Amino acid sequence: MLFQGRKLIEDLYYNKNEHLGFIYVELINFTKGEQELAVDLNRWLHVPKNMSKMDKLPTYLRKPVFEKLFAIAAYSKLNKEERDMYDASLKNKWDAESIRQTAILEQKKARERGLEDGRAEGRAEGRKEGVIAIARDMKKEGIAVEQIAKFTKLTVKEIEELK
């Protein structure tokens, strides 16, 4: 593999690969105006030649890639102190967003735990109501209170209070 890689580099270096070509662009000869920038290639050639004259991103360059380029250019213009302040500001922004996202996740988890606890509590209450209904029916049938208590796990007092 190393030999093949070296061979490829030698072929490229000595221009032996007929599929490889070079295009040189002299920006000084690129003279298209703003109205003629219909394709991105023309915009990419226009930007480095004219960026020093632009104080803000022109409307014809309103694309995410050019916005990112201008943001990087603006950052690179900052002196060390300004850059440190900007970095600290970004860190604070990212920390605040992280805290916000964590709070949202914790709130969601708490809500899910609360719902599950509520469901469990509801099931327990439902079981208790079922047991009370069975005890009430057993009492109507004349089964001894002690026996009802044994099978339903209710107290004798709870069974005696049933109507």
UniProtKB/TrEMBL annotation:
Protein name, UniProt field: Transposase (putative) YhgA-like domain-containing protein
Q: Which organism is it from?
A: Sphingobacterium haloxyli
